[in-house]
Amino acid sequence: MTVTDATAVEHDLLRAPRLNIGPIELDVPVVLAPMAGITNTAFRRLCREFGAGLYVSEMITSRALVERTPASMRLIQHHESETPRSIQLYGVDPKTVSEAVTMLVAEDRADHIDLNFGCPVPKVTRKGGGAALPWKLQHFRNIVEGAVKAAGDIPLTIKMRKGIDSDHLTYLEAGRAAEGAGVASIALHARTAAEFYSGTADWSAIAALKNAISSVPVLGNGDIWSGADAIRMVNETGCDGVVVGRGCLGRPWLFGDLVAAFRGQTEIAQPSLGTVAATLRRHTELLVEFFGSEERACRDIRKHITWYFKGYPVGGDVRASLGMVESLQQMDDLLGTLDWGMPYPGEDAEGPRGRAGTPKRPALPDRWLDSQTMDEAASCELAGAELSHSGG
Questions:
Q1: 119, 239, 248, 298: which is the annotated catalytic residue?
Q2: What CATH number does domain 3-269+357-383 carry, 3.30.70.920, 3.20.20.70, 3.20.20.140, 3.30.70.20?
């Protein structure tokens, strides 16, 4: 983005609808969804260069943070340019979650804290965490109430799914409980854990949650691949803002499209192959700064290659070589073989990206669904859920 482009975006933000999350006022009602292994400070900074909104860290395990593991302490880092600073926590124990929130607040490490109740990954749900946890409604309420109290003046929000499966929906009860606990906003990914990322998101659930919640913003998540999708979600559901995840993989300029869409314009970014290559290079540079290691940054960028070049006629040999890149010089040599003037390929570069998976029976603790009340067996399962690592 050029200086002129950045100035234009800043000017147009004055005409875009805004979103308040507690004391935080966002220029546009857009949130970058936490994505494990993706939304580190490097990717967040890159997305900010193209647009505006709230950019959330990847999920960090509360216990790991309380124990100050090196990995968790690195993940909560924010560059000085990042404001407001947003961190997402995952936890299953009210005391540990509260301690993690207390630490972030006391050490002035965040301006916004989000709690994850939407992770569908088997290693999380198998122990009763993530999208499985709201089924135990009172336990869910205890976690959220304790976290809100520990956060004090820092806005605390939650992100969740519709429920475990179509027979065990939790989002309306959990949403009301969270609102009663004092959260600053509620985000809903309109799929169940059983659906993973497959099929089509059920936006009618977002509308139902919006109708059930009256005092705080409701944000919608699921199948936002363009600025037009974001506007359609808001119009169809009445939600107060959107949460964007897989749609921005390899497309950080989507946040510029979202700014344009919310100001009533239909123009979208149409980057040439050269712009894509330069953005990939910029992303890698930011990863070098984040990791403090060129070798590690090059390993990390490999998973982004397919997303960046989706729809562009880049040969398989070049893609494969970039997928094994070991240095910035090697990357420069490979990118130099591309036709930087090649124009935007249109629809082939748009639409869904990332792994959708297939519907499957969620992994859950034994007899988890027998009751929404925590019993001794369920408590024992939760005790093993919060492993001392981050991600998921």
A1: 119
A2: 3.20.20.70
